[in-house]
Amino acid sequence: MFIFVVMKPTFRSLLLPAALLPALLLSFLLSCCAPRVEDPTGSSVPDLGWLFTGKGPYTLKTKVDAAPGPATLSLVTDLSLMADTPDVVLTKDVTIAADSTLEVKLGKLAPGFYEVRLRDSIRWNIGVRPDAVVSAPDAQPDFDAFWEQTIAALDAIPLTVEWTEIPLYSNEKRTCFEVRYPSFDGGVSGGIISIPVAEGKYPVEIQYMGYGAPVYYFDPNAPADRIEFAVSIRDQGIFKGDQDRWIDRGLSSKESFYYRGAFADAKRAVDFVASLDKADAERIVALGESQGGALTFVSAALDSRIKAIAPAVPFLGDYPDYAKIVWWPVHEVFEQADAEGIDREALFTMLSYFDVKNFAPRIHCPVYMSFGLQDPTCPPHTNFSIYNNLGTKDKHYFCVPTCGHAMWMEPSWSAQRAEFLNNY
Known about the structure:
It is built from ten helices and 16 strands. The N terminus is likely disordered.
């Protein structure tokens, strides 16, 4: 079952000054998101037709910031955007109406994501049947054994917790602590936790943080109806120093790669909250955006005590295809691998142990994932490389077609996520 949410846009159309168009709408879309979806029949809804969920033929109808008159429109596959010669699947002469409306028949298109190119500088993405995008797992034969060994080593480490109360975010309703505890291979993880003062058993909401995201604290005046835990994995969050790069650390082997310890830290967070006297271990849920979305998926794959998850714009899905769509992060990894003399085949084999799409078949709890169709950081194809391989059939997604990567700024997603997670 898939859920498509149609909501009134907060702005009528996507209009950008011509001088900003070469920026590919990104700065605007990253800061301004309005939910837009396609009629499931596949026929365009005026001003909403960027996500097609029917079987077509498709008609694109939208507003553009361009002078009226003739123009050329091309459609490029997302998997060719980093290629020297992009794959153009359609080119048409079109006419932009006096009211800035563009209407063009696209015909039938294969499932996937495409960049619309209008004139020389106007760019935006559309999607076609994302639930049918194929990105097969490429897990190595010893994938499960590797992670079983990793978690066994983690389980052998005593969970000794250092608690430091934070009075500024504590009151008579909730008490806030910074916590630290040992994790895999000598690492330390922890985070910020807010616990209701009153006696009782409470559901737990684990929140995994984005890549290098700043530490945040919970409102002590919020309803004291749950335990909230913002996880800091090793070297990030409360442990972050001057560093700002982690993804290219330890590339020489799966044993040394940074995300081996980071994924173990995500699992350790579940161990920690399940050990709390006030935690109801039957009501643990998880959420997160970007890197936090990846950690949310991985934690559910490694620990069945998580009852439901709501990841947004997940990171680290499908490294090989990632490199075909956007420069970062894979090309940053390429640079470091080249410096260390690691060839591409060996690199991608190693990364397959940390590709979230390879964890997806192990996830059997309910999932509600959100994505931004204009995301230049964790592009939609990489999100659905995870989603379409999930082991659960109880999965839904929420699309904000005009949004980039900043899904956390979208109040409609926050409301949808809360409603979903409250069921568990």
